[in-house]
Amino acid sequence: MAKRKTTKGEDYGDFYENLALLAEEKGIDGEILAEKIKYAIEKSLKSNLHFDDEEEDFVQVDIDIVNRRFDVSIMKEVIEVVDTLYEPEKEIVLEEARKIDPSLQVGDRVRCPIDTKTFKRIAAKNAKDLIKQGFSNAERQHLSEIWGQYENEAVSATVTRIEPKTGHATVEINRNEVMLPRSEQIPGETLEVGQVIKVYISGVSKEYKEGDKNQYLKVSRIDKWLIKRLFELECPEIYDGTVEIKAVSRAPGSRSKIAVISNDPNVDAVGACIGPQKSRINAVTKEIKGEKVDVVLYSDVPEEFIQQALKPADVLKVVVTNPNPDKRSCKVVVPDNQLSLAIGNKGQNAWLAAKLTGYKIDIKSESTVTPEDFVVVPLEVRPEPEETEETAETETAQPAEETASESAAAE
Predict the structure, then answer these.
(1) CA distance 330 to 328
(2) Which of 38, 104, 163, 406 could form a disulfide with 168 if both were Cys (CB 3.0 to 4.6 A apart)?
(3) 277/269 Cα distance (integer angstroms)
């Protein structure tokens, strides 16, 4: 096979253009990519020439993007004549060395440039994987720096690839490709290449270490907080704080519930979320592939909140039977003809209401209620610790622990 003809200057004629295009595509500073290439070449040459890693100055790579300079050199020892142990990669005879610096003597060291064609062969053979790894590290670092501030936010993503066997999708976010596992996609959802979707960034690796493969950007379509972010995008009253989402529960692909409250007596919280002719809530359900969303009114009074959470069922009575934060439970009475609606298909309505309120909910029909159903477990009073230096230090942490217990119960 005939060898491909090359023209003078072709070796690196497009190097800087390609580097600039790659930097623009990935959103990474070109100088950072140049440093990765420099590191890979230095490491590759040291390995080929059997230099120790500590001998940092023996190999020098200079990549100047601005002035388009690409120089590679090696520190060589000056010897008097060529002998049987001559190592041309590490040694240079005195006659040749003095062409570089006439003052050199035997035993001195001099920096010698490497022929670019020789370098190219070495780089192609030994540095390719190191350069690729360096680029991957730079990309992971870029993700950590750029997206760390967007953790717990919803962003637009374009589907670029779908694995036929696993169903895993690759999505592009800000010119970076991120995996969207099948387990994080809405059940029953069929994604298509080129489709623009909203994803929730549920995890971002914030600390970067060179070569660390644990960098990640975790995105999800099933996280319950995606519902909150979608309503923020559709409802200006939520975005500006007039209406507040207090709690969210979700059965991805089927149904969700959100509890809202208005900080302005003149604004209807539920109505604001639904929007004129249901325009706002319809926009949210369309984004999550028809998943139904119930918007209910939040209340600081548990009985009222639980009653709202069980909508669309009518509730006659709610009794909190166990008010203790880590064991909260209640009994709910509904009309006989509302029992199935209150429980929901496969218990879904009751389950979502329990997740929303943080209470275990026992629903009873009106005809089956007995007085024993409303027996209330007394609130446990924790004994106050004796005032010591240790308890004084931990006293302020107690409310945080109680809040954590309440949050756990809500989950």
Answers:
(1) 7
(2) 163
(3) 15
Burial class (CB in 10 A: 0-12, 13-18, 19+), 312: exposed
Question: Could you give the angle at the alpha carbon of 45 between the alpha carbons of 42 and 47, nearest 5°?
Answer: 110
Phi/psi for 34 (5° steps) reads -60, -40
Residue-by-residue pLDDT tens, the chain, 411 positions: 444 444 444 444 466 676 677 666 666 666 777 777 777 777 776 766 666 655 557 777 777 777 777 777 878 888 888 776 777 777 888 888 888 888 989 888 888 887 656 655 554 555 455 555 555 666 666 666 666 677 888 999 999 999 999 999 999 987 778 899 999 999 999 999 999 999 999 877 655 444 455 556 789 999 999 999 999 999 999 999 999 999 999 999 999 999 999 999 999 999 999 999 999 999 999 999 999 999 999 999 999 999 999 999 999 999 999 999 999 999 999 999 999 999 999 999 999 999 999 999 999 999 999 988 899 998 887 666 565 555 444 444 443 333 333 333 433
- Which residues neighbour 151 within 8 Å (Cβ) at sequence distance 6 or greater? 201, 202, 203, 204
| Token pair belonging to 175 | 């010119």
Q: Residues 134, 36: contact at Cβ < 8 Å? A: yes
Burial of 349 (0-12, 13-18, 19+ CB in 10 A): buried
On whether the CB atoms of residues 61 and 46 are closer than 8 A, the answer is no
For the sheet containing 292-297, what is the strand order?
A: 243-251, 255-262, 292-297
> How far is CA 251 from each of CA 26, 255, 348, 354, 359, rounded to the nearest angstrom?
36, 5, 8, 12, 17
